[in-house]
Amino acid sequence: MSTRPRPLVAGNWKMNGLRASLTELEAMVTANNTALSSNVDLLICPPFPLLQMASSMTLDAAKGRRISIGAQDCHTKESGAHTGDVSAQMIADTGATYVIVGHSERRADHAETDAIVCAKAEAARRAGLTAIICVGETHAEREAGRALDIVRAQLHGSIPQGMGASHLVIAYEPVWAIGTGLTPTAADVAQVHALIRAELVNLLPQVGADVRILYGGSVKPSNAVELMGVENVNGALVGGASLTAKDFLGIAAAYL
Ligand code: 13P
After folding, report:
1. Torsion-angle region of 217 (φ positive above 0: left; ψ -120 to 50: alpha; else: beta)
2. Which ligand 1 atom is nearest residue 238's CA?
3. Buried-most residue among 2, 34, 43, 168 (CB within 10 A)?
4. In whole angstroms, what is the distance from residue 217 CA to residue 228 CA?
5. Long-range contacts made by residues 193-199, C-beta under 8 angstroms, separation at least 24?
6. 31: phi then psi, degrees, rounded to nearest 5
7. pLDDT of 190-203, one tens digit each?
8. Domain segments of the chain: what residues?
């Protein structure tokens, strides 16, 4: 029988942040004391130009890595003629340990299919990174009663076979909740996360119970305790509120 997965609170800075923004990351590192770090893992995914600096400043020679660093996307291949793209191997080379794949903004803006997301997650595994695979329905799909079918199909199409629990995180992000201030009810979150857990156990029988399932979409300090308390919610993927140390740590404090 497996224990409850250790929570992860992850920040996705999206296309936000200049070098000056790293003072917020510095404040997060400083505030990540033993009380917090013994209960929850913290991760920040800045845009590519800040990745190396973020990775260096979160690695303490004496105390090890204080906050994990990840990227927001990777290419499916290790290298080659792909102008403007960044490989998982390059991300790992900065010291980063995570990469988000299949965020709904990339699925929409860059026409990423489940097959592409799956290949990216596979590339992440080859590079030794943990892939955070994002799934979630649109507003129209929820209204049509198709949320569970959409999420199930995305999981089946996006998760490579034989992933280990330590190399995989799933983030459920209903598209209509991202950046809108709207969130599903706790009962709706519980229903989708229960489905994701069941599908993970089905797809990855050895490790499915141990894979972390994050909720994302308008998570704030004011709603974190309720959302993080839902069964099978093992942390959060936070957009806007991860840009400041105050709000990001306010969300992580749900685990204090
Ligand atoms: P918000 O927290 O800004 O709604 O964004 C969620 C998200 O898309 C994280 O990946």
Report:
1. left
2. 2
3. 43
4. 12
5. 193/230, 193/231, 193/232, 193/233, 194/231, 194/232, 195/148, 195/151, 195/152, 196/135, 196/151, 196/155, 196/170, 196/172, 196/232, 197/232, 199/152, 199/155, 199/156
6. -85, -10
7. 999 999 999 999 99
8. 10-255
The 10s digit of each residue's pLDDT in 84-103 is: 999 999 999 999 999 999 99
* Share of residues in the chain with pLDDT > 70 (%): 99
CA-CA-CA-CA dihedral for 102, 108, 110, 116, to nearest 10: 40
Instruction: Confirm whether 143 is a catalytic residue.
Output: no
d(CA 175, CA 117): 17
pTM: 0.97
Angle at CA of residue 100, ends 60 and 214, nearest 5°? 90
pLDDT band for 35, please (50, 70, 90 cuts): confident
The Å distance, Cα 42 to ligand 1 centre, comes to 16
What spacing in Å lies between the alpha carbon of 46 and ligand 1's midpoint? 13
> What homologous superfamily does CATH list for 10-255?
Aldolase class I (3.20.20.70)
CB-CB neighbours of 148 under 10 Å: 17
d(CA 3, CA 8) in angstroms, rounded, equals 15
Cβ atoms of 124 and 84 within 8 Å: the answer is no
Whether residue 107 has pLDDT greater than 80: yes
Residue 114, pLDDT score: 98
Probe target for ligand 1 pocket from 16, 238, 242, with the most ligand atoms within 8 Å of CB: 238
